[in-house]
Design goal:
- The chain has 409 residues and is α/β, with parallel strands linked by helices.
- The protein is 40% helix and 19% strand.
- It has 13 helices and 14 strands.
- The strands form three sheets. A seven-stranded mixed β-sheet has the order 7-6-8-9-10-13-14, with helices on both faces. A five-stranded parallel β-sheet has the order 2-1-3-4-5, with helices on both faces. Strands 11-12 form a two-stranded antiparallel sheet.
- Helix 12 crosses helix 13.
């Protein structure tokens, strides 16, 4: 008996045995397991610690909620879903390690995330090589789906496994430029980015579209996203007479940058993309009033399609808010769930042996009414929903100002 116990312990430690299928973990497991079902795991990669954790935890909870609702409704007969979250700390190297962990776990049929485009760049090829579906609710870097040639009109999809429910920076930059120039009436802007994939790409898209409209970029600069002392750069901005500062980056640096701008006596708004659209931004910036942001989709609080999501999220009692990407994450997770359903229905009611291939094959057929609106993907894996919303900080919180889709081309 002792030898058998030692052998079992060694096998478990080496990963030779797994308890993620039905049986031992079915009682009291994640996602509302039901005995006898095949367990299907959906990975979730996001920054669950560090400066961007508010966004990442909202993503984690929203993915978890999608799995719970699917299990409660028995949406796929004979299948129980479980979400496996991994923390990438917003670091590309950690994201690459997480990708290998997901790939190695054969129960994982798809991965939701990550938040950062720079992290995704390290995950896309491994997932593509493994045939593992990836759906990001937050990556907006246009090149992720259309390759570097998109800037010259030569878009080519580099990875067949990558999809997203968030639209691209090509769309977001154009929308931001149109809003600032046409709606806010601001004709002179200073441009700053954090030199990361997301920030630099968004700033470039904004610049191209803003100048095309007739707007003037009166100066530009780059910052280190870890910096918090911005006195030198705001002094430069003051000399240009800019009427707004456009920032390509995320809220941990944007908030103190905006406050330094106002502290220097410049009563002009900082505008950014979805990377600054977080409830944390006004908390970190005592002078955020009047600042602007764009974010993908319409505010879920105003959508009839999101009422059930909002009610279920509140009922689960999650400690963290769903934040900017909650609805998009739910839809990203649900798209994988829908793909599993198609795979099962096409295999006599059973999960195919090659479930990853079956799920990937089904992704191009996905079409459903999601939390954020109709969900489907084009030939590049991009969402067909191009709607954007502009927000302004009013009384210490983001308030929606304007929604629509930009003029492209």
């Amino acid at each position: 008996m002792r030898q058998r116990l030692l052998a079992l312990t060694a096998a478990l430690a080496a990963g030779a045995l797994t308890l993620t299928a039905c049986g031992s973990r079915d009682e009291g497991g994640k996602g509302g397991d039901s005995g006898g079902d095949v367990k299907v795991v959906i990975g979730l990669d996001a920054p669950l610690s560090g400066d961007l954790s508010a966004l990442g935890l909202g993503m984690k909870n929203s993915a978890d909620l999608a799995a719970k609702i699917a299990n409660k409704k028995k949406f796929v007969e004979g299948v129980t879903f479980e979400v496996q979250p991994l923390d990438d700390q917003a670091q590309p190297g950690v994201g690459a390690q997480n990708a290998q962990k997901f790939i190695s776990d054969k129960t994982v049929v798809g991965v939701v995330g990550p938040l950062n485009s720079s992290v995704s760049q390290q995950m896309q090829k491994p997932f593509n090589d493994a045939g593992l579906t990836q759906v990001s609710p937050a990556n907006t870097g246009t090149e992720l789906t259309q390759g570097d040639g998109w800037k010259t009109g030569d878009s080519v999809r580099p990875f067949k496994t990558f999809f997203r429910t968030a639209t691209t920076d090509e769309v977001q930059g154009a929308f931001a430029a149109e809003y600032l120039y046409n709606e806010a009436g601001i004709k002179k802007a200073y441009l700053i980015d954090d030199q990361k994939t997301y920030g630099a790409g968004l700033a470039a898209s904004f610049k191209a579209n803003y100048t095309k409209l007739g707007g003037k970029i009166v100066g530009s600069d780059h910052i280190n996203p870890d910096d918090r002392d911005f006195n030198a750069v705001v002094t430069k901005i003051k000399k240009t007479g800019a009427d707004a500062l456009y920032y390509g980056g995320e809220y941990p640096a944007a908030a103190p940058l905006s406050q330094a701008l106002k502290d220097s006596g410049q009563d002009i708004p900082l505008m950014g993309g979805d990377g600054i659209y977080s409830g944390e931004y006004p908390k970190l910036n005592k002078k955020a009033e009047g600042d602007l942001a764009t974010s993908v989709g319409e505010p879920v609080e105003k959508l009839d399609s999101a009422k059930e999501f909002l009610a279920n999220y509140e009922a689960e009692g999650y400690e963290d808010a769903y934040e900017a990407y909650g609805g998009l994450t739910y839809d990203a997770t649900w798209s994988i769930i829908e793909a599993v359903k198609l795979a099962v229905e096409g295999n006599d009611g059973k999960l195919p042996d090659d479930s990853r291939k079956a799920v990937l094959d089904a992704m191009s057929k996905i079409k459903f009414d999601g939390v954020t609106g109709p969900i489907s993907f084009d030939e590049f894996g991009d969402t067909t929903n191009k709607t954007m919303t502009a927000y302004k900080v009013k009384s210490g919180a983001w308030a929606s100002e304007f929604s629509g889709a930009p003029e492209l081309g």
